[in-house]
Write a structure and sequence with these properties.
The N and C termini lie far apart (62 Å). 18% of the residues are buried. The chain is 43% helix and 22% strand. With 231 residues, the chain is α+β, with helices and mostly antiparallel strands. A hairpin with an 8-residue loop joins β4 (37-47) and β5. The chain folds into two domains: 1-83, no CATH class; 87-231, Four Helix Bundle (Hemerythrin (Met), subunit A) (Up-down Bundle), CATH 1.20.120. It has five helices and six strands.
């Protein structure tokens, strides 16, 4: 990693380049007699190299040793500091209800993945109604179908998948004894998709409008200069 690698700091949300000197690792192992299993805890501390930030991100990883394969399999990871890697969107047009649902889904994705998936689903529905102006549909499925011709086919499939997984938390199965879990990793992927949609829809539109206003203002200035006689 001599050249460093790209990383987005969860404190300042800036893309930076981190090197070995920015990362510290603390690792320890322990044996649990009750199940005769060996575990490893790995704490990674990453210091943001940005002079205006300089804060630490602390991540905890837990591994279980597989005796047959001779490897340590990851079974748990959590960002301890900051509490959640909540992205800050520099866009004033995003409705508060969408940001609130996104933040809550992010905060509980490890604590309650099923609830996080449900909130991601609700966030998706709010965005479709607000950004695309979809009304009069009975279900989220119909609302997604209404925007199929406006989005990339692969994104359409991903959005339908988010809806389906979110339904697991929102609605009980016909057989109430059938338990279908949502893993923290799956909840993480769903919330990441929400982040991507906010960026692709709201933030991208705001940037486009800003560029258009800048060009329009520039043209108005030039036209005014043409009308003003030289002295």
């Amino acid at each position: 990693m001599a050249k460093g690698k790209s990383w987005v700091c969860p404190h300042c949300n800036r893309p930076v380049i981190i090197r070995d000197s920015d990362i510290n690792n603390v690792r320890d192992s322990y044996f649990l007699p009750v199940n005769s299993q060996e575990y490893v805890l790995d704490m990674t501390i990453t210091i943001c190299p940005s002079e205006s930030c300089g804060k630490e991100t602390i991540e905890l990883y837990k591994f279980l040793y597989d005796k047959d394969e001779g490897i340590y399999n990851p079974i748990y990871n959590k960002i301890i500091e900051p509490e959640a890697n909540i992205k800050i969107f520099n866009c004033s047009t995003i409705p508060d209800v969408i940001l609130e649902d996104y933040k809550e889904a992010k905060l509980i994705q490890n604590l309650s993945p099923k609830a996080s998936a449900t909130l991601a689903r609700r966030c998706l529905q709010s965005m479709i109604r607000d950004f695309h102006g979809i009304t009069g549909k009975r279900t989220l499925h119909q609302e997604i179908e209404a925007i199929e011709d406006r989005i990339d086919p692969e994104m359409y499939k991903a959005i339908m998948a988010l809806k389906s997984i979110g339904n697991i938390g929102a609605h009980p199965e016909h057989d109430i004894n059938l338990i279908i879990d949502v893993s923290p990793e799956e909840a993480y992927q769903l919330v990441n998709l929400i982040e991507m949609l906010i960026d692709d829809w709201y933030v991208a539109r705001a940037r486009q409008q800003e560029r258009v206003r800048a060009i329009t203002a520039m043209n108005e200035q030039k036209q005014q200069e043409r009308k003003t006689p030289e002295t």
